[in-house]
Amino acid sequence: MSTLLLLICSNVFMTFAWYGHLKYGHEWPLWKAVLVSWLIALVEYCFAVPANRWGFGRFTGFQLKILQEAVTLSVFIVFAVTFLKEKMAWNHLVSFLCLVAAVIFAFAFKSGGQTG
Hints:
Elements: H1 2-19, H2 21-24, H3 30-55, H4 61-82, H5 90-108
């Protein structure tokens, strides 16, 4: 459970680092947007690295990556709707459901690549 919580925290910071300047940073020079984003991403790494280190062994590298992508998209959906004020279209929802299916497939079946 700590891996999932750390990935969620990591992705909140990552989403603001990558996309936060789209709402408020248009007047900034590009170098400032990059610098501010990099500083936010540094905090993101402080959550992501432990999440992956502690999760590896319990999960495979493939499972960690698939889980991380699902968390990324989940956090981004909330961000896009609430912060960027974008509407989610039906094709975005179907794409998200396909990713949920990928997570289910990644975790539901035992594979030869299991560690630990």
